[in-house]
Amino acid sequence: MPGSMIDGTAGCAGGWKSLRVWIEANPEAFAALVAVLAIVGGLAGSLIGAKIQANGGRDQAAAAREAAQIAGESQRAAALWTVRQVQTAAYIQQAREVMRIGEPMFTHDDAAGGLSEQVHAATQDLGHRRAELELVATRAVVAAAQATDGAVLRFADLALRAGPGVYAYRSLPPGAMDADLADALIEHWRASHSGSHSLHDLDAQRNARDRAEQRLRAITLPLPPARISAILDLYARTEDALLERHMLRQEVSRSLELLVEAARSMLHSDHEGGTGLVSRP
Q: How many other C-beta atoms are found inside a 10 Å radius of the C-beta of residue 61?
């Protein structure tokens, strides 16, 4: 081993000595070689630098594309959050508006048809609001809105059918409900709820209604025909209108609570910075 190391060292020394002798003997060739080596080194450095720069450019471009994609997704998420908030709030407000407009049907005269027209218009607007909500909201919110819609529309239908009768009955003059009128209305109620469709029972129903109508027309302060008809229709109903109104109010209240809860979950209302947390529909 020591011998081989000595031989290798001697060989290197001899090689450098020979190179030095050649350089001294050929200075012009050495100068040209150095120039060539410098040029080659410069080109190699440029190529390596260009490659590094190109790779860096691609990385920067990829990072820019990713940043643009993230920004675009964030903008779309924020826009969807805003649309959902606006449409949900508009539907809830309109549902409450139908209830607000429907209530006076039980307490005010609708002789000119103004109240009933408002109820019809409000329910149509509610349908438009629900259709808009169905396009952007989550399934949970849509389901809650449909449940709310059903309860609100049943209340509106009750207000239109029974509201005028309730108002007319409550507006009877003091002392108008005497024994004869009470008996006639009760007989009309019983005949209307007999559940039979035989000719004999149908005749009995008509006779009972006619008798009740005559007693209503005999009231000292004459009632408008529309109020008389509304009272007779109220007694011909198969359910207690006031009890049904109370139950529908409770149903609407519960369904609205569930809708608000589902909407808060959709909008991540309990999280800070909720606009960036939009779930998929």
A: 10
